[in-house]
Amino acid sequence: MSEVVEAGHATHDDHHDHGPDKGLARWLFTTNHKDIGTLYLWFSFTMFLIGGVLALVIRAELFQPGLQFVNPEFFNQMTTNHGLIMVFGAIMPAFVGLANWLVPMMVGAPDMALPRMNNLSFWILPFAFAMLISTLFMEAGGPNFGWTFYAPLSTTYAPETVTYFIFGVHLMGASSIMGSINIIATILNMRAPGMTLMKMPLFVWTWLITAYLLLAVMPVLAGAVTMMLFDIHFGTSFFNAAGGGDPVMFQHIFWFFGHPEVYIMILPAFGVVSQIIPTFSRKPLFGYDSMVYATASIAFLSFIVWAHHMFTVGMPLAGQLFFMYATMLIAVPTGVKVFNWVSTMWQGAMTFETPMLFAIAFVILFTIGGFSGLMLAITPADYQYHDTYFVVAHFHYVLVPGALFSIIAAVYYWLPKWCGRMYDESLGKLHFWLSFIGVNVTFFPQHFSGLAGMPRRIPDYALQFADFNMLSSIGAFIFGFSQVFFLYVVIKAIRSGKPATDRVWEGAHGLEWTLPSPAPYHSFTHPPKITDAEAHS
Amino acid sequence: MSSQTDQSVYYVPHNGWYPVWVAFGAFMLLAGLGTWLNAVKADEDPSAWMMYVGGATLAVVLFFWFAKVIEENHQGLANEQLKRSYVWGMGWFIFSEVMFFAAFFGALFYARNFAVAWLGGEGAKGITGDYLWPEFSSEWPVMANPDNSLFQGPAESMASPGIGSWLSYLPFWNTVILLTSSVTVHFAHTSLKNDSRGGLIGWLALTVLLGIVFLILQGWEYLHAYDELGLTLSSGIYGSTFFILTGFHGFHVTLGTFMLIIALLRAIKGHFSHHDCFGFEATSWYWHFVDVVWVCLFFFVYIF
User: Fold this and answer.
1) Model confidence at A13, in pLDDT bands (50, 70, 90)?
2) Domain ranges of chain B
3) Is the Cβ of A226 closer than 8 Å to some Cβ of chain B?
4) Which of A405, A472, A394 has the alpha carbon at shortest distance from A432?
5) Closest A-chain CA to B239
6) A111 in contact with B at a CB cutoff of 8 Å?
7) pLDDT, tens only, A412-454
8) pLDDT tens per residue, range A247-258
9) Which residues contact B114 (CB under 8 A, 6 or more apart)?
10) Which of A154, A292, A316, B256 is the most exposed place for a label (fewest CB within 10 A)?
11) Cβ–Cβ below 8 Å for A242 and B27
12) CATH fold of the domain at B14-78
């Protein structure tokens, strides 16, 4: 293993073992992309469990009609914080963690481009979420206005803890912006010679584009919450019509952030799946170039479709038509992707290890979520679906068996490279089937209750929705506990899994598989040579 | 040390205590500010110690962090590739700042073109305004708000009096000052490229001076707005957009001036050379950026 230059420490730490520090200091002060990736992933899993507990409170309350466990006010805090924690605490940090672990290894770099800032991006997050989650224990209660925090619910009528929520969002935004800058600088400046842009693994490509989305919209979110702060504390009237402002303006600004945010949570998932499917199909990715262009097109379109989230709020007809057609256009590049994944598998020598199972489930179930999205894009139909459980079913299908399944698939796929040990294949498959059944039992019935008219964000409901809700709650508990089982599978692999080979998977290509398993603390101090076999797939 | 370092190796610092303390400082600053704001709003006795602890931590740690990076550069640890990372980093940071201002400009455009017009009964959604506030008629700047008992409109606005009277119009002079400062910071850069240290220091000092004069005039304008025009944060959408745009711009000018002062002090210490001056260049890009934002402000907030 080659050395990393250690000059500049001559006075105080003149050691040359270059391994990690010992104890807590390693994690607090680390500048190593693998350590930081690990921190991100464990943080994300912790938030996932917390957000999951909130979800189970919701599902327990909805198991039967009537109020049984919580009062409506607390129920609102549960839905709000479940959304915020899952979006900003679980899904996004998990993808940043994957980027940290994988991007430097995939492009042949020694580390992330700006290692100290990398540490800062991570350590802001625990503070931000401490600030957000602590509000649940305050006298006024936590945020209760939905994860979309529409004004005036989040301004005029908000609990006083909204101030901490606002600053929490500012901190998360700062973390995301610094993380994105780091990823962009790493990809554009740290590639090994010969790793041209069109030879990069698709995971790297999707993250490059995602980082641009983050840079473009996180500051807009910061602007939105700043205007809220001013409306609440400094007497401005951005979102108050009495002073010439407009609550609908809040929704426009929020969704200008919010829609690209949806793709921020799914583009890296596309990247992960595009790495895994070729490996277990033992074929190169079908249509690599078109995958890149499709990703870029989706990213571009994400900026001009935001108002499809607010068709019912009152918009000029021309606006409704524009946003409807623009939204439907997204189905084209997304269709290209699904076609390419299926064509990659076509006539491949396929095997079905756990990562592949999750990846295939991703393709099928994400596509279902995409189809329900197309239904919601039709303006007149959306008038019926808006704010019903159909919307809940739609976005959970793209986020749970979509984004989350891809993260789980990524963990199974790269875990042997990270810790040098294999997970137990039959436990992994069991985890998959429990998750697959759980997720469908939870969310599929919600399509029906939504179409039948059940509104979202309510703690009680009319009797005719009882059966679907009971089914949904049973599924949620199956799904929730199978993720605790996932924790067991991962810990078992780390502690006592069988040693993994360097290539790990017979069909795997890419620079990360040329390194030993576990990957050494510093991977490519000197740039590796890029062979055709290790370029894009 | 510098002669021994291998320029083909990308310098990855082994570890650092700065970032986690910056995170802590930012947390204390914002949690303290939140507590303080909530106390003020609830008419309680506000306590600000958390805010001060956070601010002080941030200031001290950032000082040591930047000092460390400068020191490492002097030791020759930063190779060309690392400097390119800094360039990418600063460039995309400025892009994110552009998007931050885009949110407020977007709010201004939406309010002017849609919200206020609709409230005044015009356009596709005008019927709502007719029902809610039939008295309200749309104009920009909005001098009388839909509900003047909640939000008292301003007596006068900051709108441009017409190009003929610009010589007595403060925002015009502020525009001249900031545009000039963009030129002076460019001259400082040219001097640096010609290895003229005196020129660098002189032009930088002049830029700092112009920045400070701009900020003083901006403060003066705010006093004038509050005391004489009755234009405040709470005078409705015009005051809201006016103060958030000019206020955040002023905050960025303050930050930029501070960065320029640091660059000036470093120039006096002899830090920059014509091929190694990222700290200076990043500052000057930032300064050009706040300048461009001001030009947009001058057009869309003051003139049109």
Assistant:
1) very low
2) 14-78, 79-303
3) yes
4) A405
5) A236
6) yes
7) 999 999 999 999 999 999 999 999 999 999 999 999 999 999 9
8) 999 999 999 999
9) A246, A249, B123, B125
10) A316
11) no
12) Helix Hairpins (1.10.287)
